[in-house]
Amino acid sequence: MGALFDSYFKSLEMTGIMSLAPVKRKAFFSFHYDDIMRVNNVRQAFKLYNPGTVLGGPTFYDSSLWESRKLEGDEALKRLIREGVEYTSVVCVLVGTNTWWRRWVKYEIARSIVDERGLLAVHINGINHHQRRVPDARGVNPLTRMAVGKMSDGTYRIFERTSFGWERYSDYSSAVKLPKYLHEPAVGHVTPLNWNTMEYDFAAQNGSKNIGGWLDLAAKMAGR
Asked: Structural domain of residue 213, as residue ranges?
């Protein structure tokens, strides 16, 4: 993967994309609500990077909005997520211990594909737990569990990894465009999202200072 990204970054440099100053972005943070205290550290860092817009609107949307409205039903939650992702240019998955199997995290990832947004994963278990005051082991990157596959008719669909292998993603079954950052799979095969997206560690890689650049790069990789 290192060689793949080295080649990709060289192409970005040649086109001048990497030389541009970071753009202030509206981001969507996807996470498991049990990680809210660690997530708050990331929120505050992002606010410092991007404190507001000309119109004074929020610079991020996140999963906490959906957690408080579960009683409205699945379709209502999907609508809220669609609306949240619509106003952003990048979806940032904040990875804790159990993030990878959460249904709505997977749907938020799927919306990033459907809506052609940037996508990245940031591990947050390196941030000290608010009670135990120690970090935790890295969780599974949810982007290893989702993919885009090419069908026999030439269309692309979203897949998820289950105990039975790669299966069609049940919460969004329509055709999608192949993301600009993703290598095209062969017919009958899938390309997992983590193969062509960036993965960071907030604590180990100085996320407080660098998260703005991470978000900006992910958006540019998606053509946003």
From this structure: 23-129+137-221
